[in-house]
Amino acid sequence: MIPVSDCLSHVLTSATSLPLSTKIIPLLDSINSYSSADVSSSASHPPFRSSIVDGYALPSLDCSRVYAVDKGAKVYAGDDGSGGGVNNNSNSDMACVYVTTGAIVPDGYVAVVNVESCVVKDGGSSLTVSPAFSLPANNNIRPVGCDIPPDVRILRRGQRITPEVVGVLASIGEKEVEVFAQPRVGVVSTGNELVDVSSGEGLAGGKIYDANRYTLLGLVKEFGGEGVDFGIVCDSKESVGEALKKAMLECDVVITSGGVSMGEKDYLAPVMRELGVDIKFDRMYMKPGKPTTFGVGEIEGRKKLIFALPGNPVSAVVCARLLVEPALQVLMGRGVGGEGKGGGVGGGEEGVRVKGILVKGVKLDKIRPEYHRVIVRYGGGGSGGGFRASSTGAQRSSRLMSMVDGDGETSNGLALLPSAEEAGRRIIEDGEEVEILLTGKVLGVQEEKEEGGEDVTIIMVGGEGEKDVGRAKRVLEGGRDVFGFKAKTYIFALGEEGAVEAAIKSEELEWEGAGKLVLVVHFKKFCDKVVRRVGEMVEKRAENMEATIGRIGCGIMGGTFSFYELYCGSRGGMMLVCLGAGGEGRGEKEKWKKLLKEVKKIVKRPRDLIKEDGSGGSGGGGSR
Ligand SMILES: Nc1nc2c(c(=O)[nH]1)N[C@H]1C(S)=C(S)[C@@H](COP(=O)(O)OP(=O)(O)OC[C@H]3O[C@@H](n4cnc5c(N)ncnc54)[C@H](O)[C@@H]3O)O[C@H]1N2
Ligand code: MOO
């Protein structure tokens, strides 16, 4: 597997080897393109001396005198300023003239006073300036060319054209601009399972809707390229080959998704080789997106960039952001202008990286560094400022909802997490600093929401019969009230083979946090069986925790509490606590609720206890 930075270098070097073409386009079409030439201003702005306020133009700077007002000589914005009997000779005895903001200040007038600072009398024919007004020369007058002087550079070759740039060009009368042509980017989805949502077809067995063409064409648009839709092709070497060739003929860049891992029908790499594509890398040392494959092809004497992205929807999006966006920027001429501060240089092709706090800790992938999707906010928090990132939850590469949470938020950053192997530990703690790659606009802190995800999972093991399971449900509901925290719950009958184990495993899979409590609650009479089953799932028994909970349990429950019902152990960063539930008898339920509250407090940060608890037995097998 190749480090992402090396993969990016391959992509940028390859992109730089493609020729750029230019075109002249209307201003509004040029937004987000890159200028292909330096542009100097061919005119001055403003082209005339212009008033900054609505007021009176004065022929002298003397504030102590009474001025005459020429009532017939008002100059509004857009008037040529020559009419209305204005005396164009510089003469301090000239009458004052009313002017509006943006109007020409006629020749001979040396300052403008805003209407609020003038006292106009005698039916509008005489004017004095408010006392204590100080009047410098050219007060409230913009001289010719003060905003855009003539013959100065206003746009650099390689500079991105923004609405503001377009505004500057329009100001000096340019209606078109020469830019580097947008690259044409063909997008192909591969996979027999895919159905185009616009086809109106329903989903028969084994089929899913094609999401990747939509995300990838959307991204190409966002990145400034011209997307070309090449549809879905089935998993056959011939179809994939034909589609790839067609897209290469018509486009500068081709993005495919699917068919790059180890499956018998993963044809992208062999087809690319057959088409003579020079594959630069086919495995990235990262998650998600490991099998991303990239190469440079040549067709009819023209070089093409081929990105074969993984089929998993999140992998495709993340890798498009990491690799395709910088490549398109190069092909759009970003930064060709060289050193200038506006020359598209700086910012780094890899995007903006910041240091920030990871609000809630997460598990690290054992082997691969992870681009963990987060919501990034700026400011607030206990520490009072800086960037704060919150995980978007389960990071499966099939789960696009890790980028769009359905609650109004879209992931706007990728936390760059090391692998557990690199970090020498399995988790990032709550509040640890991490590096974040920004992929969208950072949110303000006022939009900060409560961290998502459950605090605890409760697996309730009822008895053998329906009656017992019903009882378990009642107890559990009571428990949820008492906990007062978000709980995910499972209820099983004891007889359900493998159910508890499956629930624990699925929690482990789902869960991305750094410390999690899984409470396995059971009825006393079945404690042997439940404890044995949970014991088999535990990697390290936590006897210190058992002792602590046991002490508290005896205090609260008195004679009804027995250590025999209690078992604690860790699995990954999860703490599994097995507790025998009390009966429904008078007072007993309340005591039991109290105990659960205490347990919650004790295991609030289960990893602390896991760390402290060196006493763990060999784990597994419910070693009791
Ligand atoms: N034996 C191995 N299997 C896999 C490995 C591996 O190293 N060894 N890598 C896994 C990783 S990591 C990834 S990522 C995926 C990538 O697989 P492919 O690129 O070959 O993609 P497919 O198998 O075609 O699809 C994967 C997944 O994504 C769904 N998919 C595909 N295209 C679309 C689409 N356009 N819209 C929505 N969903 C799509 C597809 O149905 C699969 O579920 O391979 C792992 N396997
Ligand atoms: O690299 Mo794959 O994208 O982990 O799922």
Automatic annotation (TrEMBL):
Q: Which EC numbers does the record give? A: 2.7.7.75
- Tell me the enzyme class: transferase
Q: In which pathway does it act?
A: Cofactor biosynthesis; molybdopterin biosynthesis
Question: What keywords are assigned to this protein?
Answer: Magnesium, Metal-binding, Molybdenum, Molybdenum cofactor biosynthesis, Transferase
One annotated GO molecular function is: molybdopterin molybdotransferase activity
| Keyword Transferase belongs to the record | yes
Q: Where is each MoaB/Mog domain found?
A: 186-330
Name the chemical reaction catalysed here.
Answer: molybdopterin + ATP + H(+) = adenylyl-molybdopterin + diphosphate; adenylyl-molybdopterin + molybdate = Mo-molybdopterin + AMP + H(+)
Q: Which Pfam families match?
A: MoCF_biosynth, MoeA_C, MoeA_N
Which cofactors are reported in the record for this sequence? Mg(2+)
A single Gene Ontology CC annotation of this entry is: cytosol
| SMART domains with a match to the protein in the record | MoCF_biosynth
Q: Give the SUPFAM superfamilies listed for this entry.
A: MoeA C-terminal domain-like, MoeA N-terminal region -like, Molybdenum cofactor biosynthesis proteins
Q: Which family does it belong to?
A: In the N-terminal section; belongs to the MoaB/Mog family. In the C-terminal section; belongs to the MoeA family.
Functional description taken from the UniProt entry: Catalyzes two steps in the biosynthesis of the molybdenum cofactor. In the first step, molybdopterin is adenylated. Subsequently, molybdate is inserted into adenylated molybdopterin and AMP is released.
What NCBIfam families does the record point to?
molyb_syn
Q: What is this protein called?
A: molybdopterin adenylyltransferase
